[in-house]
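Now read the record:
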Amino acid sequence: MPEGDTVLQTAARLHRALAGQTLTTSDLRVPRFATADLTGRTVLDVTARGKHLLTRIEGGLTLHSHLRMDGAWRIYDPGERWRGGPAHQIRAVLGNAAHTAVGYRLPVLELMRTQDEEQAVGHLGPDLLGPDWDADTALRNLLSDPARPLGEALLDQRNLAGIGNIYKAELCFLARATPWLPIGELPARTATLLVSTAHQLLDANRDRPNRITTAGGRSRTVASAAARTRRPSESLWVYGRTHRPCLRCGTPIRAAEQDDRPAYWCPSCQAGPGPA
């Protein structure tokens, strides 16, 4: 599942390709909006909000999309072959004289009035990479249900927006807590540090195609230095490393299902209950 930093990068690519340009091609391949014609309108901007993409278009319209598990937007030059997937997976095409943006496997695609955007994203908590980021509000949201497992609380976009399964696993490791530990059992200082670390990690990776969490996420400079020295298999602490040795203690990493998604943890470094 794309994380907040990936969605932000997607928004930036779409903005560079479409913003300020008049649409010459418009094709929304979902039944509800199949007859909508956006040609002749100018794209004003493309903005990320958590894991949501908002493409604002002249005339007070917004095309709202969400990538979820395997959706993607691809940008093509004139005459370039579209390679993002078979034609039946295309859900949207927006083109101008210089570029064509093609949306593949988009589970959420809707055209709405820009003034109604809050209907799509108003439920989200503070955006880890947005101008509305508020660590205190995010912390209060997370702790509002003390009995909830840490991993589930981190993935709930109503608490804070932008964390996916990768960052969930990595943040639990850095907090030295299993994903099943009730979040209310985290020491107060650890919970506060967890929120600030989430922001630091996503910010450190916001402009990088290859995500790194083992650098500590303190700054983009630190993350860049780590990219030059660490092997790809050492770029993440636990995510996707089942049975491999923990980079901190050497204990084999374990994996189990949590809320229908794989959860990864080190049984030596992380305290708390395991899966039921």
Residues 216-230 have pLDDT under 50 and may be disordered. The chain has two domains: 4-121, 135-265. Helices lie at 4-18, 118-121, 135-143, 150-155, 165-174, 188-205, 220-229.
